[in-house]
Structures are given as structure tokens and as C-alpha cells.
Amino acid sequence: MAKLPLALILVSVTLSAVAQLLFKLGVSSNAETSGLSISAKLVATLLSPGVLGGLTLYGIGTIVWLAALARTPLSQAYPFVGLGFLMTAFFGYAFLSEEFGIPRILGTILVIAGISLIARG
């Protein structure tokens, strides 16, 4: 795979993974909405910095993804989305103290192996 399409894919996937982290932080930080109605809670959550930041990164990531798809076959590009699973698991562990036990480690190894095989094709 050429360098530019690969770089675009990796940037897009990274932006999406960071967006997931921001989404989690955004919905987790809205504990102060306990006395509000459901619609007010929804608005407060959607307008939280984490959710807005996540949506922004998803938008940018989508534009980058479109640029990547213009330069590479979908069947070769799409498996790299699996890297997002790896990144979000790492971000959850590193920034949210989520568990990263043996099953996740083994699953991560399998995903990396699959992406490596596809990238060579």
C-alpha cells in the first residue's frame, strides 16, 4: 500500500478512536444533570465538551477517510478500521483505568495479525 493512503487511513482511524474517548469522557462528566428532565439531560450531554469534541473529530476523520478511499480499494482500506478497536482499548486502559486482561490482549494480537495480512495484499 502506498504511503499517502496508509497515512490517511491511520489518521482517520486515530481520530475516530480519540473521538470515542472524548464521547466517554463527555457522557461520564454529566453527573450534575441529576435533577433535570430527560430532554434537558440529553441536551446537556450533547452539548458537553467531550461529546462536541468527539463529534468534531468524527467529522474530520470522515473527511480524511473519504480522501483515503479515493486512493485505495475499500476492501484493502476497511480492515484497518480494526485498529480503532485496538486504540480504544488502549485509551480505555491508559486514560480511564479500564481493565486490559488476557482475553483482550489475545484479541488484540489476532486483530493485529489480520490487519498485517490484509496490508500486505
What can you see in these coordinates?
The structure is a single chain. The chain is mainly alpha-helical and 121 residues long. The protein has one domain (3-120). The protein has helices at 3-28, 38-46, 49-69, 74-77, 82-96, 102-120.
Q: Report the order of strands and helices.
A: HHHHHH
Distance between the termini: 8 Å
Uncertain residue segments: none
Helix content: over 70%
Mean pLDDT: 90
Number of strands: 0
Shape: flat
| Tally of discrete structural domains | 1
Beta content comes to under 5%
**Helix run count:** 6
Q: For the report, how would you describe the main beta sheet?
A: none
From the structure above, extract its key features.
flat, 6 helices, 121 residues, mainly alpha, 0% strand
Entry summary:
The chain has 121 residues and is mainly alpha-helical. It has 6 helices and no strands.
